[in-house]
Amino acid sequence: MGVSEQEEVAVSRETANSSEYRAVSRETEPEFDTPIAREAAQALRAMNVRQERWPAPATTRLVTVANQKGGVGKTTSTVNIAAALALHGLRTLVIDLDPQGNASTALSIEHAVGTPSVYDALLGGRPLVDQVVKCEITPLLTCVPATLDLAGADIELTSQVAREYRLRRAVESYLEEASERPDYVLIDCPPSLGLLTLNALVAAREVLVPIQCEYYALEGLAQLLNTVELVRSHLNPELAVTNVLLTMYDSRTRLADQVAAEVRAHFGEIVLTPVIPRNVRVSEAPGFGQTVMTYDAGSRGAIGYLEAARELAERGRAHG
Fold it and tell me: Which member of 229, 233, 258, 306 has the greatest number of CB atoms within 10 A?
């Protein structure tokens, strides 16, 4: 065999070996270039299979989720952000302050009339710890449910002494008595600026405002901001709007981009970078007594809330 023939054989062996190597590497390396594979990878990340832990604040962050406009995603944002925080190692308490009890439903918590609820803490004088219920999602997530008893609370609170401070005192007592203090307390408000929402604003240090990416999104927002300013001036000097979350974003419409740009221009850095897309899985999840984080962790809605909760936790480093 001549020199040229030997060289040709060597080259062919090298190319053959490299082809075999590429074939083996393709088999051993995970494939994420298909929609199903990508969604599976996203679901594993959302459910935190690798036990990633997000940074915990040194003191409990008290966050009220408020917007008097209905249908902007207050309850959906509350329960999904709470679930994401808890799945990533942060002890989280949800206080359902909406008489409709939708947050309780989404977390699969019993809230029939007569069930121990936030009403008992506000008007019954009972310790909040007696109403705290553990959620099935993770032991780190707990909830104080709301019942229809709360529907008349605005009227009942009118005649009470220090009516604006009822929830604040209940929460403060709970934090002092709790054997394991939560890292986060998220308060879900009704779509109004009545005494229930006022109690939530007085009890919290931060306000998270969900804003729908639609035409009427900014209408009525001035009234909420004025109320926050009045509460800060007269009842709770620690209160501040610290986070704004864009919800129901539809990338197919130019309007959604315009609203998002207008909100970011107005509120600046307090607007969370992730946006929550319109997603049918987010709407379906409460019907099964679940958050979208457990119902379909690979969906676009779940990933949106995961990233929003992650940024909220990262911002919490300032509290550490």
Answer: 306
